[in-house]
Specification:
- The chain is mainly α and 121 residues long.
- It has seven helices and no strands.
- The chain has a domain of 67 residues.
- The protein starts with 5 loop residues before the first helix and ends with a helix.
């Protein structure tokens, strides 16, 4: 492995320091709350990744109108909606069959295929 250059080494140290200060020295939140906030952010980014670039402006506007945040629901709004941080985490792992089909994660079951064909034709 080639030796690190001074510029790369400084960038790496800066990244490490930023991550360390967010994870360890965040005095405003406990570690579980920090982790929960990260999960909400990850979920928002995942959801946004399914949209085409030309659709994002519309999605950002909708999110701002609905949540007051262009990226999607905030941790605070999720806790208010679900009642507890634990419920927010459980909700983050729920599946959404419609979104799974639209994104290609799941296939349409044969039992519902006729409903879709009737709707489309």
């Amino acid at each position: 492995m080639p030796p690190a250059t001074p510029g790369k080494d400084r960038a790496l140290q800066s990244t490490r320091a930023a991550l360390h200060s967010r994870a360890v020295f965040d005095q405003s939140a406990s570690y579980p709350e920090f982790a929960n906030r990260q999960i909400v952010d990850i979920r928002n980014k995942k959801q946004l990744s399914f949209y085409a670039k030309d659709e994002l402006a519309t999605v950002y506007k909708r999110n701002l109108d609905r949540y007051g945040n262009a990226m999607g629901p905030t941790y605070e709004s999720q806790v208010a909606k679900y009642g507890s941080p634990e419920a927010v985490i459980r909700a983050g792992y729920r599946t959404n069959p419609t979104m799974d089909i639209l994104t290609g994660i799941a296939r349409i079951r044969r039992t519902f295929q006729h409903l879709i064909e009737d709707y489309v034709t």
